[in-house]
Amino acid sequence: MTSPIMNTYGRYDLSFASGEGAYIVSTDGRRFLDFGTGIAVTSLGHCHPHLVKALQEQAATLWHCSNLYTIPNQDRLAQRLVDNSFADKVFFANSGAEAVEATLKMARKYHDDNGNPERYRIISCDNSFHGRTMATISAGGQEKHLAGFSPIVEGFDHVTFGNLNEMRGAISEKTAAILVEPVQGEGGIIPAPDGYLKVLREIADEFGLLLIFDEVQTGIGRTGKLFAHEWSGVTPDIMSLAKGLGGGFPIGACLATEKAAALTPGSHGSTFGGNPLATAAANAVLDIILEDGFMDNVNQSADKLMKRVKDIGAKHPKVIESVRGAGLLIGMKCVVPNSDLINKLHDLGMLTVPAGDNVARLIPPLNIGDTEIEEAAGMIEKACEELG
Ligand code: PLP
Description:
The chain is of the alpha/beta class. Helix content is 36%, strand content 19%. A hairpin with a 2-residue loop joins strand 13 (320-326) and strand 14 (329-334). Helix 2 packs antiparallel against helix 9 (276-289), helix 3 (72-83) packs parallel to helix 9 and helix 10 runs parallel beside helix 12 (370-387). The structure holds pyridoxal-5'-phosphate. Pyridoxal-5'-phosphate binds next to helix 4.
């Protein structure tokens, strides 16, 4: 029988019925350690009691109301994001691509408002991923995402990630902004080289450009700080968030400084963006992530997991070439096809997800403990033994 689902995903032969903490249970009753978290989404694990309670209470109170009205949960969430970041203003969307789309529109509008409509071009990086809308595939610039969708959205220039000479060389009098991921996620868990973001900040200031960080995958604690750019000591003018922000409930956000926040009534909007349910979920996520000591635990777990996986990689060079990443966003660059490792881990009872450059990604819940780390390490080691 053919599926009525449009054929946009290459799917594993797995479906899930329930989840609890770091574990997810398939419809045929198998229990998996979930180190994929729905691609960096269920950052507090499945069915976290605090999130369940917040969503149940909100579901029994008010699901949705239009952005024509003030939404108290949204105000509260925006204020908390502002209080804990570089930003002064927040726009809420429903996904990562929409959050990035808002950053792009904002950059163009900022220069238009300042009397420079010719400054519309955005420099982004090869091998980046910013979403699947027309503008965000154009920003990503990857042939495999663009094929068949010409003409692409005009106005993106691409440079090699990490190469500052190319970045400088790409700037013209038409450049509006620079858009980068602090760690390329889909591209293969590639952290920006040391000092790269800092120099991008200097370049942006020198040429009057806006600096946009896409933290859809790296934001909300994933790298051991609330936002990955905090490790660099510099801040962007604009930032996109999604994934972990809702802990599994769809929500995206575009944060900006007062100066960059050029979107005005009528120039942008979203029916669902930041609705009462979504912002109740995200506030509940922040209740936990902003607790004292939470990020210390993330960093401790990240150090342990990274060390364990690096040791396993070193023992099995025929399976794992190298291990890299930031915080609890870890990439195992494989020698064997990454799908072999991922499928073997499925057989052993663990979920991981692929990324570019033949990488298998470990993106566990941020609140894992030593037991889950040891269990994961045991399964990765066994998978390597069987594959090697
Ligand atoms: N930006 C980055 C850095 C991402 O990793 C992703 C998704 O993987 C997106 C944007 C797009 O997010 P979404 O799939 O929610 O539209």
